[in-house]
Design goal:
It comes from Bradyrhizobium barranii subsp. barranii. InterPro entries: TPR-like_helical_dom_sf. This protein has 170 residues and is mostly helical. The protein has 10 helices and no strands.
Length: 170
């Protein structure tokens, strides 16, 4: 699993996916591998598959301590796909499960902004930035883990949502 995460976060998500699939071949109920597989697929332009993997992880472990992260993974995948209303639903689940997860609040801000709920988006952005005052769009873009054009196009939508919500450029 660890090697899969390292590969995913170093622009080798396809290799990371193979690691997660191998882990699942050995242990089909390994919930973190299901979630990681969904997460990694978003980096190679296959965000349409993310939700299915997250739903399987949640089916196997509905009260898992990491469910808030999984919901955030699904929400961001929905944002990458332009399914902003569905993203709001997933990201609300994430913030409700863990009110201290800044990335869920900041991602919720983008989703809300892209649906036109600008006041609520700005509130979500302020909440996320209060939890991580160093978050900026520039820092996130500088640390990108994928050069996949489908992923990057979705990421630009996400950044536009952040800008509308008042997340600092950096």
């Amino acid at each position: 699993m660890a090697r899969g995460w390292v590969q995913t976060f170093t622009n080798r998500a396809a290799q990371g996916i193979r690691e997660f699939e191998h882990a699942l071949a050995l242990a089909p109920n390994l919930v973190n591998a299901h979630a990681a597989l969904g997460f990694a697929k978003s980096y190679i332009g296959r965000a349409t598959e993310t939700e299915g993997h997250i739903l399987e992880a949640l089916r196997l472990s509905p009260r898992d301590v990491f469910a808030y992260q999984w919901a955030c993974f699904a929400g961001v995948a929905k944002l990458l796909l332009g399914s902003d209303v569905e993203a709001v639903s997933w990201l609300r689940k994430s913030t409700e499960a863990n009110r201290n997860f800044h990335l869920a609040h900041i991602s919720l801000a983008a989703a809300l902004a892209l649906t036109g709920a600008l006041d609520e988006a700005r509130t979500a952005a302020r909440t996320g930035l209060a939890l991580n005052s160093g978050f900026t769009i520039r820092r996130l873009l500088a640390a990108q883990q994928s050069d996949n054009p489908i992923y990057l196009a979705g990421l630009q939508r996400l950044c536009e949502g952040w800008r509308l919500a008042g997340v600092p450029e950096g």
